[in-house]
Amino acid sequence: MTFPTTLTGFAGTPALDLPPWVWWVTLGIAAVILTFDVLWIARKPHRPSTRELTVALSVYVGAAVIFGLALWWLKGGQLAGEYFAGWLTEYSLSVDNLFIFILIMAKFAVPERLQQFALMVGIIIAIVLRGLFIWVGAAAITRFSWVFYIFGVFLIYTAIKLAKEGESDDDEYEENRFMRFMEDRFPATKTYDGTRLFTLENGKRLATPMFFVILALGTTDLLFALDSIPAIYGLTKEPYIVLVANLFALMGLRQLFFLIGGLLKKLIYLSIGLAVLLAFIGVKLLLHALHENTLPFINGGAHVNVPEIPISVSLGAIVVILGVTTIASLWKSRRDAAQLS
User: Is-contact 205 93, C-beta < 8 A?
Assistant: First the structure.
């Protein structure tokens, strides 16, 4: 297996040239942690306590911060800034996924004690699929620098779509064509059988609702990856940083689901904040594309003299956008609650 190397990227960015064993160790550690989680949850399905969730989430967030600080110490502030910007972006986009996850759990009436297992397996599927997206994105960028135009336009389109949706009152999960196909393809029972994906009923092997819940969680996150992967490639040219930022964002998603489920409804401006964030990164990508590519209709094929947005500005913008979004959302929710009381 050949791992992607540093891409042709942002001017002045130091390269993160890593031997293959670093990739293998990173993937191995992630695989061991995820396997342990799945086996432990499957052996004893339960709704996690607040203490259990807080400890686990603190470990994941702490590990993510320590990784960024170690990167700063070993490779400098530029790459560390790219990592923190990418991690915060992926984390904020993952929080937006949680609302859809809640709707999926309600749609399939997943018992509370089984929700951990469903989330864990769904997240593993999402990690594998995102890994493929990261590899494909790296290969495309390496061969075609103009792909940044596509990424930039797509992110701006997604931002406009998110902004138009605004405060959505949609409280139902709509199954996509793939899910409808799978439900038609596999005979199923309506009764859960613990964490089993298939069960025997009257001598017939049937899919349980857990099978479809996991498919829904995994494929839904794949759709979210369509904007999250281009977004993080707008912040860093390093596939390894893209991978690690996604791992840390997804591995703490299960704990966030249980901890901030009620808080999500208070983040009423989250879609608007994410729209601004994606639009900002989209513009950054377009500026980078103009900087890297020649335009045939300008002086017979000359570079356009446009500024590139440094990572320090990007990181600051991300922090401000997410901070203002959270504060404004909580203020509005508190004001509305006060008016109703």
Answer: no
